[in-house]
Amino acid sequence: MEQSSAGSNNNANADESEQPSSGSAYQVVQWLATRDEVETAVQLYEDMSAAQRERLLKEALAAPSEQRKLLVDVLRKARDFNGAARLLQGSGADAEAAALYEQGGNQVDAAEAYLRAGDIAKAAAALERGGALERALELYRGLGARESMAQCLARLGRPLEAAAVYRELGNVHAEVEALCGVPADDPRHLESVLRICTLLDNEGQPRRALALLVDTLRGSEEARKDPAVMAEQARLLRRVGRDAEADQVLAQLPGSGSAVPSVPPMARVTPATSGYGYLKAIPIFGELSLEDMKDLYRVAQQVLIPEGATVLEKGAQGSGLFVLLEGTVDVFSGPEPDAKRLNTLGPGAYLGEISLIQDGPTSAHVRARTAVRALRITRAGFQHYLDTHEAAALRIYRLFTRNLAARVRALSA
After folding, report:
1. Mean pLDDT for the stretch of residues 405-411
2. 203 neighbors 172 (Cβ within 8 angstroms)
């Protein structure tokens, strides 16, 4: 027994002698990590000053990668995500390092790590989040990610290029929004205004087109001298049934004997809503700034849903948000022919907003009672928006949690 006790004491003394009592902070933390005393190591690291932590990291970075990996868990638990990511450099764990850099808010280093890991899409999104829009655009272009390209171009203040991409994508309202950003001193400003007028008229909004054109004419002498602009003004005036004013405009044109081609009057046109106001009214978007709201609007696509088609299938994974612009839908308890109809919704109503934030099955079955025109934001598109608009994401999640808490309180009451 005495021999056994002596042996135990010798082992204890051996363990104590291994502890680097006068070693560097790195050596002490490393020693604790090798003994699986991670929580003690974490507390020691957290208690260090910023300068001490930086010295520890520099010493650790000079050590072999296998030794550095032991400290990654310590730094991650201490929530020094950037430090943990730095320790992973050169260890072949670039994807893990990138995710840690993102947690630490270091988007540019995250992008570089994603590039080393070969994940170009995540690298581009990180660059966009970090404000390196030109580099993000270059990567998006290589990926052929045209919607993300267009968003970057719009945020870079290159509206004509953004509009050209949106036109290729067939996203009319996004093209209009982009063209509205062309400054008045741009040589192609009037060309842009005329294009907007055509798009708005085609979408059933000739009055909005006319208002834009009149405002342009008031503020630009060049526009007042441009025959194409004046001819478009006359055409739109005829479009809304103001023929006498159209004739007055035509009389000012060179060769005033010419006439504007016959156009259907406004009475034959059903004005179409753009949906921006409806989207803005959704509670979880209630704190978005104007620029963030416009960016979200450009993410949306207009879709046409035929009568009788399933809009949302009960039990299926949520596919995103639908905002009804025209037509009506019926909400049923399930897909069965005898399922109970719970509600009928029309323009301004929205469906599937929860699926934008929470990945889960749809709770109701929705079918189009009539042909429906709607704005749709896919879950993937919304997640990219959140990833690249951190301030907007914070506001959206804050309102979402408030609304969720209010529902829980209501149920409890």
Report:
1. 79
2. yes
